[in-house]
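Holo prediction — inosinic acid.
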Amino acid sequence: MKLYFATGNRHKYEEASRVLAEYGVELVQLTRVPKLEIQSSSLAEIALTAARAAYLELGEPLIVEDAGLYIEALNGFPGPYSSYVYKTLGCRGILKLLEGVKRRDAYFESAVAAVIPPYEEVFVARVRGIIAREPRGGEGFGFDPIFVPRGDERTFAEMGLEEKNRYSHRARALRMLGEWLRSRKIKRAQL
Ligand code: IMP
């Protein structure tokens, strides 16, 4: 079973292909379709709009994923603006905003939108954790060096891909997709 993943992010693709392989899905990275990014406070809406646009270009069953980091002491910032904030402030900038802040709770949210005609589905999942005091680790991408998932003491950037997939927002949303594909018995006929 073959499914396209429209993303320019190699890390996301690697994480996702590992999870979906558990469900017998062969994920193919699609980099040539530019992601249509609307402004919305809902990651699900952003991902679904991008997935529909990508489907119009490609005409093959595909998924798009959108994610964000929500920091409680900052009232959920950067949330849907995570990509821009990562580019402008980075991990160091976030740590600066949290200087002297004791409550460091945060969560990552992932929305995976699938367009597999005649179906359209969005799967949303979270992982809760805290923002570390300093960046640690060299694996992964984005805010991985400053996010410690609940149940562990290491940041995502201190974990291998398999370990991050045990906790991550993205892996959870993708497992929901995997279960849905299984329950719908979506096999080669549709894909
Ligand atoms: P995107 O718009 O889905 O690419 O995600 C927005 C931003 O959130 C990215 O630029 C990353 O900085 C951050 N982000 C999303 N998912 C992760 C993750 O799994 N680890 C670390 N940072 C992430």
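READOUT: DSSP finds six helices and seven strands in the chain.
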